Amino acid sequence: MTFRLPAVRRAVPVCRNLARAWLDGQGIDDDDTRYPVLLVISELFTNAVQYSAGRRVTCRIWRSESLLHIEVHDRGGTASVPLMRSAGQSQEYGRGLALVAGSSSRWGRRTEDDDSCTVWAAIPLAARVPHPMTP
């Protein structure tokens, strides 16, 4: 599934709801998979909204045999590249990518030739989640 939303904070819950609907359609109803997917997509979308100078953010979710893949792409436009930082106890921001790293089996980012940025994560599927094409 791919969708594009405006790069505004109020689009974050819309992004989460679209991801939730996709998970429902895939028959993925266990919290061990759903919670990390919704957390990761929320964090990545929020970062894109916060740091991109673009007007839209594109999200893509798909599944392979044992992983759910999430990509969040923004048009860039700022010198800021997403980096994992250590946030102190009193800091309000700075934990998002650490949450992404802790919730996924791997994650990364790439800067495209046009200065746009894609941040991605792969989240393991729970062992009991059947693929919709499996009889």
Structural summary, described in words:
This protein has a five-stranded antiparallel sheet with strand order 1-2-3-5-4, with helices on one face. It is α+β, with helices and mostly antiparallel strands and 135 residues long. It has helices spanning 12-25, 31-51, 96-103, and strands at 2-6, 56-63, 67-74, 106-111, 117-124.
Give the helices and strands, then pairings.
Blueprint: E1 2-6, H1 12-25, H2 31-51, E2 56-63, E3 67-74, H3 96-103, E4 106-111, E5 117-124
Antiparallel strand pairs: 1-2, 2-3, 3-5, 4-5
Helix pairs in contact: 1-2, 2-3
Oligomer: single chain
* Category by helix and strand content: alpha+beta
For the largest beta-sheet, the strand count, sense and barrel status come to: 5 strands, antiparallel
Shape: globular
Helix content: 25-40%
Considering the chains and any ligands shown, give keywords for the structure:
single chain, 135 residues, alpha+beta, five-stranded antiparallel beta sheet, 3 helices, 5 strands, 26% strand, globular
Short structural summary:
The chain has 135 residues and is an alpha+beta fold. 32% of the residues lie in helices and 26% in strands.
